[in-house]
Design a protein that fits this description.
Helices cover 43% and strands 18% of the residues. It is an alpha/beta fold and 300 residues long. α9 links the parallel β9 and β10.
């Protein structure tokens, strides 16, 4: 189901759109938005909206906000999966009830700043993979939670793996602002790390401070050399720090270093080996997603 909208996407400093030209549905709403914020779970809606607001302000981008939810009657899955989705309604409420809770939070958030007045919440319910693909197709950045209800976890997986988007994820303890005060890049010379930096270049250019952390236990300094090269290619003024894990996990090393330098955002490539393998092995991405206290900027 695609719920119609009554307004367009928003950009700071831009007047509200002409009513004759406003989008009629969610696909139109998100077609020209550079940043799409997905709100599958009321628990994380405030953090996602605040994150999207700051990300848009940093690079003067437009934003579209969409509640997205699974509708069992529109899903192309097995009967068992449909039954599981219907059972969750007992705990989480129906798709419509979940939307109403998100909309209430959205309306309260919208009233707190004048520049948000032209922003309207879209609602897209159905098969989640198809919904995500439709609303995120043209986005440069997708803001969505990792934790939360079943929709939140499925939406995150689809955005990262099936759509290949740059994803901005709020921490579990809530977003406290100052997104780009100090961006910490966890660097390894892998393709998915390079893709993430390239995709995030506009936000990195707007950052007040950038530190690139190379957790490298080898003596050849390959991590440091490649880190300097990617920063040179991207025109980034960054401090390069090389450290060893000293027996700790790489994920914990990044988190501990980030806390020691007051990083306000961590950027890394996500799931080099795929979601299930990293989940089983407890690798870097899963550790960051599970324990980070600042926003994460990732792509697969």
């Amino acid at each position: 189901m695609i719920t119609t909208t009554t307004d367009g996407n928003w950009s700071k400093g831009v007047n509200p759109p002409d009513p004759a030209a406003v989008p009629r549905n969610v696909r139109d709403l998100t077609e020209h938005a550079d940043i799409v914020v997905l709100l599958p779970d009321p628990a994380s809606a405030q953090s996602c909206l605040d994150l999207a607001d700051d990300a848009a302000d940093a690079v003067q981008d437009s934003i579209a906000a969409v509640h997205i939810g699974a509708d069992p009657l529109a899903m192309l899955v097995s009967a068992e999966e449909i039954e599981l989705q219907m059972l969750r309604d007992l705990d989480e409420g129906s798709p419509h009830e979940r939307f109403e809770r998100v909309k209430q939070l959205f309306d309260e958030w919208k009233l707190s700043a004048p520049h948000r007045q032209s922003l309207v919440l879209g609602d897209y319910q159905g098969d989640l993979r198809r919904c995500v693909g439709s609303v995120c197709r043209n986005a440069s950045l997708v803001v969505t939670p990792y934790r939360g209800n079943l929709d939140a976890r499925d939406v995150f997986h689809n955005v990262l793996f099936h759509e290949g988007k740059l994803v901005l994820i709020p921490p579990a303890n809530g977003y406290r602002g100052r997104l780009l005060d100090h961006v910490l890049i966890g660097w390894k010379p892998h393709d998915h790390a390079r893709r993430t930096i390239v995709a995030a270049r506009r936000w990195l250019a707007a950052a007040d401070r950038i530190t690139v952390l190379c957790v490298d236990d080898k003596p050849n300094r390959h991590y440091e050399t490649t880190a300097r090269e990617i920063c040179r290619q991207m025109g980034l003024d960054a401090e390069i720090v090389v450290t060893s894990s000293t027996g700790r996990s790489v994920g914990n090393t990044i988190l501990d270093f980030g806390a020691s330098v007051n990083a306000t955002c961590i950027l890394t490539g996500a799931f080099k080996h795929g979601y299930l393998l990293e989940l089983l092995l407890g690798r870097v991405t899963y550790r960051l997603l599970s324990h980070a206290t600042v926003p994460l900027l990732m792509s697969h």
